Amino acid sequence: MAQPKNRVAVIEDDRPTSEQLAGWIRAARPELQVDQWFDRDSAEAALAREAYDMVVLDIELGRERHAGVALINALNKLNAGTPVLVVSAMPAAIYRGIMKALDAWDYLQKTSFDEAEFTDTFLDILRAARARTGAAPVDTAPDALQLDPLWQRSPLWRGQRINLPLTAQRILATLHQRAPQVVSYEELYDVVKSGRTRDNVRKHVSTLREALREVDPGFDAIENVPMRGFRWSSPR
């Protein structure tokens, strides 16, 4: 199969939702071509024909309650390694584990996320997938991050102070101290203290990334490990 060429698929039978997701993707990465499919048959034909960087899909398409599951299985049979982000109204507590077993990379429940969370999740998966295929590593100097051991003062990134709330500072310190290991969502719950949900952890990580990108627009050292947690990329 041909190598992906800046192309993603959005598979969603509800047209307003499809347009919204496609619009968010185009706003975040204008160079991407977004193909929109609205039923299982056309989507399955496209997946067999095209090489996608990533697929965003719903589980239920029209009257087919588990059409998305069939599409993930079809991708797996192609051995393409295409990352899949599932966006569904099905309860996350039940379906996240099912999607993980099918090798989907992440799961977002409709009505429980906004544009910022979708965009962060989408870009995390896209970067991780491209890193697997040999994308250039991020240049992160060993002493680029300076932390106060007691977390009483704002940390420094490349000599510039980062404006972070305390919870984000704790997450940053935990990820950095545990590098290159993956820090699971469950482990980060102890750092977050309140609001112990995956969605809340993601929001804190999003705040952390935004603050770091204010002082370094090219910052990309926090890696999303789909379905597991986050990892501070080892200096290279």
Automatic annotation (TrEMBL):
The keyword Amino-acid biosynthesis does not apply. GO terms for molecular function: DNA binding. It holds the Pfam family Trans_reg_C. Residues 7-125 form the Response regulatory domain. Keywords: DNA-binding, Phosphoprotein. The modification 4-aspartylphosphate is found at residue 58. This is DNA-binding response OmpR family regulator. It comes from Roseateles terrae.
